[in-house]
Amino acid sequence: MKMILLKLVIASVLLVTRIEAANTFPAFLFSHKLVPSLRANLPHSEQVPFTLAEATEIFNRLAEQCLSNAYIVVNQPGLTIQDLTNFQGYPFTRDMMTAASTIVTFPNVITEDSTTFNLDSIESHLKQSCHVKTHQVLYNDENEVPPYIDTRPRLIKVMLPALPEEEIPRTQALLDHDFLLKKIARKLPSPYITVLYTTDTVSEFKEGRSFEYSFEDIPDDPRMITTSQMKDALYSYDTIFPDITIFDKSRWFEYERNDMGELDNDLDSSVWAKDEGGRVDDTWLEKKTKEILTERKYTRFGENDDMLDSSIINKDLLLENAPLVFGIVLTVFALIAYNILRLILRCAVVVWRLGFKAKVNNEKKVQ
């Protein structure tokens, strides 16, 4: 028995040493629509590091259900878990996460080398499962995503430039990239979007806190969150946006947050809404009558016999073709002016010639 316990202790020490010596990168994904049972089947708490294989499998399970009309994969080189403690850098992303029905965060994805999510493999998986059409955003321009002309789902790969090292330019870059994501999302005709936010760079793994938050640790009223919990929410390296993902107690339950077109009422399905409150309105059963007007002005094209308009001087026709009409009128006036000017010049030449001829004749008579 002692030997077994000793082996378990040695194995645990080796596992911890292996994790501490490994590299890590952060990522998170969320879906506007509920992905049933995705969170319920996570291998462990999101506050515990994931292996790259676990994180990839989770995304593949989400993708295989094809619940979204667009999949946005954001690759932000240089992203670290510290960047995700800067809530001011992600205003739109956080708004989208708040409205999402399913959120899965990977504060630490453990990898023994510099390998991160294989974006080409993700693209192939989505093409095979959901028949997506791929667009790439390579130059920070939302116009690289063309308008929709069909109903196929889209995969939009947003390849962002690396983050600067200095703090202020780095925060500004995060804001600019967040605004780009906002402009891309607003071009999409459907709100059913899935976003995977990740990076292709790794950093050294840092040990986080020694405990995990459980459901019982979260107060029902957010105003009852303690100061230490608030501080932990702001600076923890084991969580991503914990004010949304952990300290919002509703996130511990799985339900669709974005039912569209559904009527939310307490009426029994067999009860007509018009009968609510004991009022029975049967006027809708009465036979309806309709008076049909047959006057001559209604049987023609909306015109009386004495109000016929010529299509040539029709106001709407003239307004619709205003540039053409203006060009024709201008041309006619130009031709008229040109001919009048020619006539004036000819008359002037004739008068000058007659005067000159008369002058010559007078001079000859004098001689």
From TrEMBL:
Source taxon at top rank: Eukaryota
Keyword vocabulary terms for this entry: Cell wall biogenesis/degradation, Endoplasmic reticulum, Membrane, Signal, Transmembrane, Transmembrane helix
Signal peptide span: 1-21
One GO process term, biological-process aspect: cell wall organization
Principal cellular location given in the protein's record: endoplasmic reticulum
Coiled coil: none
Membrane topology: Single-pass type I membrane protein
Residues passing through the membrane, by range: 324-345
Presence of keyword Endoplasmic reticulum: yes
Location in the cell: Endoplasmic reticulum membrane
Protein family: Belongs to the BIG1 family.
The protein, known as: Protein BIG1
Native organism: Kuraishia capsulata CBS 1993
